[in-house]
Amino acid sequence: MPSFLRHFLFPHESNNQRAKLLHPSSWGLIIGLFTVFQLTINQLTISYPQILGYASQIAPETIIKLTNLKRQENGLLPLQSNPELSAAAAQKAADMFARNYWAHVSPGGTQPLYFITTAGYTYRYAGENLARDFSQAQAVVEAWMASPSHRDNLLNSHYQDIGIAVVDGTLDGRETTLVVQLLGTKLSAAPSLTQGAVTIVKPVQAASAPSTMNYEPLSKNPKISPFDITKLVSLALIVIFIAVLTIDVISAYRSKIVRWTSKSLAHLLFLLALLIAALIISKGQII
Amino acid sequence: MTFERDFAHHPMHYFTLLCIMLIGLWGIFWFNYSRAVQLGIILSMASSYVVWGIVHHAHHKDLHIKVVYEYILVALFSVLIFASLIFRS
After folding, report:
1. How near does any CA of chain B get to the CA of A81, in Å?
2. How far is A231 from chain B (nearest CA, A)?
3. Pairing state between β A80-81 and A161-171
4. pLDDT digits over A253-282, tens only?
5. How much is the ipTM here?
């Protein structure tokens, strides 16, 4: 084995019986390099969005289908696709891009229900789920189902209609895919017999007309995702450190090495937890 | 102190650390829908880890600023990795 690899990865006389990678200077260097790597990704995402960006394969029809599947699994009636709600969802997404926000209520105070009413849908009940940066429809619906508040919305027996918009744009300088799901029941529809009805919230403030923009279901060419490349590098780094720490713990145990340093076994436990945590994190956010 | 003696003398220390990690992981898994909560959990895990290191070495009477610095670096590395993943997600 080349001596520099032995010096870098294994306990040896040359590194004071502790792999050079585990020395504070190496940790500091890795932290610095990883920070530079992240800053470079930021810059590349802005400068070369055709190479490094977010690509999505989400079709609104799939979201509706999966939502209805979840409802049926829970003994609820499926929702009907409603063009007015879809138009409202598209307007909401357009507004988020135009005003650069990621929230149910715009910075100017515009409620989601404003878009529903301006689209011509007079509601008895209405609700909204939002998601961003997901690449698969299945992942979006699963994320909503995992969140108690979004799940309640999805499985609300009062809703009869659904409208979905999947829109591409830029938020906070990042290329983003927004998924807006609007759920509702028309005022003209027969009131539900179920008790504990959802409160009808009126728009608190009418906003000026949303900026116009083109919104279309996405069908972009695949790109390198910043999330995927960050996850790949992160997992590789963690695995390398875990391997070196494992070697260090075994060597220290076998050779009965006495050192005045931090505990490699503790680092190993912590990095194993980090590895599992990193594996849990998946692409996409919901609110 | 050798690894063998360290572990034999302070099994509860390592058990406590394991519990902190397991509870943290459970939180990260449970709150998979809230990035802010997940970030809070990893920050708490990292802080607890540094405190664990200080307490453990203080018990050993081999606490030194260089040792604390090592724990801080490992914690910083972990937070940086996890926060980057959350930001990119």
Report:
1. 26
2. 6
3. parallel
4. 887 777 778 889 999 999 999 999 999 887
5. 0.93
